[in-house]
């Protein structure tokens, strides 16, 4: 990825953070802030509108509050915690002794940890420092921690070092947390660094297991991870709509329901 593309993605991500904080942004102010032309900023806002995270307005843009924003992990962990715990229990049952797995960062994957502590001879790769710390309490689990830059609000690690490290391994299963799950837009996340790492996680895993509560369905975020049809299994709650179930079945995706 060229530096120019990275700079563009980072600028657009910062614009989203400003929208989250202020609700509206102005082209002229953004142009001065990022030291780029107003034409560049208008292109950014046009792109963000297309992605569904903003509505363009005269001289700027306003946030689309239905868009999935990058909330701190502590806030996420309080949302639908009972449902996430049930999903995590179901997910942990798919882990066999001796498996080599990836646990993506996120509140639902973190909820899997207590149910994995009784497993034996596991090798777990994670980019989440909170997950790595908790798993290290079990001497039967070998924990591989990604090296890179810490995203403090998510307790996760990202960056090119993580991507290079991941490519050295092959795993049985990936447990992938989801911010946005849309049948057309695919699996999305607010952070482009996380999205890049998640894509490589998918590439080096035999099975891709998405774990999410049903509130994420039909929602989109800024950065694409993968198309829905690459998932092998989805674990979610009983509030999933029948039309979603039907379309996932047509795609050949195994859906596991965690009942409350």
Please provide a written account of the structure.
The chain is an alpha/beta fold and 260 residues long. Helices cover 40% and strands 25% of the residues. The protein is built from eleven helices and 15 strands. The strands form four sheets. The protein has a seven-stranded parallel sheet, sandwiched between helices. A three-stranded antiparallel sheet has the order 1-3-2. A hairpin with a 2-residue loop joins strand 2 and strand 3 (60-63). Helix 2 (27-34) crosses helix 3 (38-51). Residues 71-78 have low confidence and may be disordered.
Present the secondary structure layout:
Elements: H1 3-22, E1 24-26, H2 27-34, H3 38-51, E2 54-57, E3 60-63, H4 73-78, H5 81-92, E4 100-103, H6 107-110, H7 113-116, E5 122-126, H8 129-135, E6 141-145, E7 149-151, E8 156-158, H9 160-166, E9 171-177, E10 180-182, E11 186-189, H10 192-203, E12 205-211, E13 223-226, E14 233-237, H11 242-250, E15 254-258
Parallel strand pairs: 4-5, 4-9, 5-6, 9-12, 12-14, 14-15
Antiparallel strand pairs: 1-3, 2-3, 7-8, 10-11, 11-13
List keywords for this structure.
260 residues; alpha/beta; 3-stranded antiparallel sheet; 40% helix
**Euclidean distance between termini CA atoms:** 43 Å
Task: Note the overall shape.
Answer: globular
Tell me the total number of β-strands. 15
Supply the number of helical segments. 11
**Sequence stretches where pLDDT stays below 50 over 5 or more residues:** 71-78
Q: Structural class of the secondary structure composition?
A: alpha/beta
Strand content: 25-35%
Please state how the strands of the largest beta sheet are arranged side by side. Answer: 6-5-4-9-12-14-15
Order of helices and strands: HEHHEEHHEHHEHEEEHEEEHEEEHE
Please, what is the average pLDDT? 86
Instruction: Give the biggest sheet.
Output: 7 strands, parallel
Report helical residue fraction: 25-40%
Radius of gyration: 19 Å
């Amino acid at each position: 990825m060229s530096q120019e593309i990275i700079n563009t993605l980072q600028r657009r991500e910062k614009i989203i953070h400003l929208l989250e904080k202020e609700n509206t942004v102005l082209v002229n102010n953004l142009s001065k802030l990022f030291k780029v032309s107003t034409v560049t900023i208008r292109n950014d806002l046009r792109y963000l509108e297309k992605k569904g995270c903003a509505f363009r307005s005269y001289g700027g843009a306003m946030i689309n509050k239905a868009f999935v924003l990058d909330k701190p992990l502590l806030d996420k962990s309080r949302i639908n915690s009972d449902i996430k715990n049930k999903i995590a229990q179901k997910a942990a049952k798919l882990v066999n002794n001796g498996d080599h797995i990836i646990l993506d960062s996120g509140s639902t994957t973190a909820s899997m940890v207590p149910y994995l502590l009784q497993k034996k001879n596991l090798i777990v790769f994670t980019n989440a420092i909170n997950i790595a710390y908790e798993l290290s309490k079990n001497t039967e689990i070998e924990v591989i921690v990604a090296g890179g830059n810490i995203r403090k609000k998510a307790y996760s690690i990202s960056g090119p070092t993580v991507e290079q490290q991941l490519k050295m391994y092959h795993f049985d299963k990936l447990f992938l947390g989801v911010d946005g799950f849309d049948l057309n837009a695919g699996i999305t996340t607010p952070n482009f660094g996380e999205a890049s790492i998640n894509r490589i996680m998918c590439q080096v895993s035999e099975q891709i297991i998405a774990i999410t509560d049903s509130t994420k369905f039909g929602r989109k975020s800024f950065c694409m991870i993968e198309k829905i049809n690459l998932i092998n299994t989805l674990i979610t709650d009983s509030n999933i709509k029948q039309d979603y179930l039907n379309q996932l079945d047509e795609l050949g995706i195994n859906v596991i329901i965690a009942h409350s």
